[in-house]
């Protein structure tokens, strides 16, 4: 049951205007009346309609940023870019992480709406999940911008050309003579992982190579996942000569596993990552993702939506990605 101001008025015997005034922290009420209203609101679980209130009040000068994994350095530059633009507009950013959990993502977006943010930037899960909570934001006319595209939903978004990244990584290994190539995917809810893996498979086929299913490792998320997969690879009788990892954090785990076994990258295994994160201590060949620019672009788009409302067309941008070659790929022979 959703308790309303009218319900609280009946329960307390006070006028609806009194209930509303106290809940909106207006002056002119005795402490006794104030406590009576607040106690009833708490007792009966009254939750204010913050969306409706926000639409009729002035700006709160806050926006919400919902990312997938606050521990992943990939999101550091996204966040930095968003905050830089928000600061320029005099806005505060409320940051939270879904932890790659769909229910948590929904709850956090609802919490941001409850805080009456003026808009939201969301990095949503994009595979094997529902998007009712995102469609609800559009129905409520709350400004938002997405990191990633939801098919069929016309809204503001930016994304990266992950398919191109997967292709570039695979082609680089093939050009260096590798034919036994493995791949470590991210979580099944990640469209980036799906696109990178699809590009990897397509590139193998285009070059007349066969994918060995024993060389594919699914659902990796963390540094320790990379360590564990690296250990499994080292125990193979015939291991791949190269691994493409979903991201640099996983790649670092693979490299750690080799170091613990007294082996070296790239002499004993070539490794490629994704993201080109700042904290890399190893000269890793990786696909650079323009996360900082994407964060700034998302924020600019959101503020245009906040201030212009629904008067302009939706903005949608795909960022190019680029392979950065360092010293983690061994040349076997010229292809």
TrEMBL record:
<dbReference type="InterPro" id="IPR000843">
    <property type="entry name" value="HTH_LacI"/>
</dbReference>
<dbReference type="InterPro" id="IPR010982">
    <property type="entry name" value="Lambda_DNA-bd_dom_sf"/>
</dbReference>
<dbReference type="InterPro" id="IPR046335">
    <property type="entry name" value="LacI/GalR-like_sensor"/>
</dbReference>
<keyword id="KW-0238">DNA-binding</keyword>
<feature type="domain" description="HTH lacI-type">
    <location>
        <begin position="3"/>
        <end position="57"/>
    </location>
</feature>
<dbReference type="Pfam" id="PF13377">
    <property type="entry name" value="Peripla_BP_3"/>
</dbReference>
<dbReference type="InterPro" id="IPR028082">
    <property type="entry name" value="Peripla_BP_I"/>
</dbReference>
<keyword id="KW-0804">Transcription</keyword>
<keyword id="KW-0805">Transcription regulation</keyword>
<dbReference type="Pfam" id="PF00356">
    <property type="entry name" value="LacI"/>
</dbReference>
<dbReference type="GO" id="GO:0003677">
    <property type="term" value="F:DNA binding"/>
</dbReference>
<protein>
    <submittedName>
        <fullName>LacI family DNA-binding transcriptional regulator</fullName>
    </submittedName>
</protein>
């Amino acid at each position: 049951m959703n308790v309303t101001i009218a319900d609280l008025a009946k329960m307390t015997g006070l006028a609806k205007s009194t209930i509303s005034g106290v809940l909106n922290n207006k002056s002119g009420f005795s402490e006794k009346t104030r406590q009576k209203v607040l106690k009833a609101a708490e007792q009966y679980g009254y939750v204010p309609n913050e969306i409706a209130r926000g639409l009729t009040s002035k700006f709160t000068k806050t926006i919400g940023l919902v990312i997938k994994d606050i521990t992943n350095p990939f999101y550091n530059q996204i966040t930095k870019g968003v905050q830089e633009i928000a600061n320029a507009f005099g806005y505060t950013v409320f940051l939270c992480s879904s932890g790659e959990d769909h229910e948590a993502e929904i709850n956090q977006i609802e919490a941001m709406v409850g805080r009456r943010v003026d808009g939201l930037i969301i990095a949503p899960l994009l595979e094997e999940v529902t998007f009712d909570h995102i469609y609800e934001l559009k129905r409520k006319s709350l400004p938002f911008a997405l990191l990633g595209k939801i098919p069929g939903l016309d809204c503001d978004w930016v994304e990266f050309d992950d398919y191109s990244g997967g292709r570039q990584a695979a082609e680089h290994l093939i050009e260096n003579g590798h034919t036994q190539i493995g791949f470590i995917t991210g979580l099944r809810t990640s469209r980036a992982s799906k696109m990178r893996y699809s590009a990897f498979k397509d590139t193998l086929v285009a070059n007349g190579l066969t994918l060995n299913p024993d060389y594919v490792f699914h659902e990796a998320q963390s540094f320790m996942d990379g360590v564990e997969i690296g250990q499994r690879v080292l125990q193979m009788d015939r291991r791949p000569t190269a691994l493409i990892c979903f991201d640099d954090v996983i790649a670092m785990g693979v490299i750690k596993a080799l170091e613990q076994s007294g082996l070296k990258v790239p002499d004993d295994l070539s490794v490629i990552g994704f993201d080109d994160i700042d904290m890399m201590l190893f000269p890793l060949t990786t696909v650079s993702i323009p996360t900082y620019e994407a964060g700034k672009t998302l924020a600019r788009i959101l503020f245009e939506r906040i201030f212009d409302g629904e008067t302009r067309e939706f903005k949608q941008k795909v960022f190019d990605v680029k392979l950065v070659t360092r010293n983690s790929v061994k040349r076997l022979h010229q292809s």
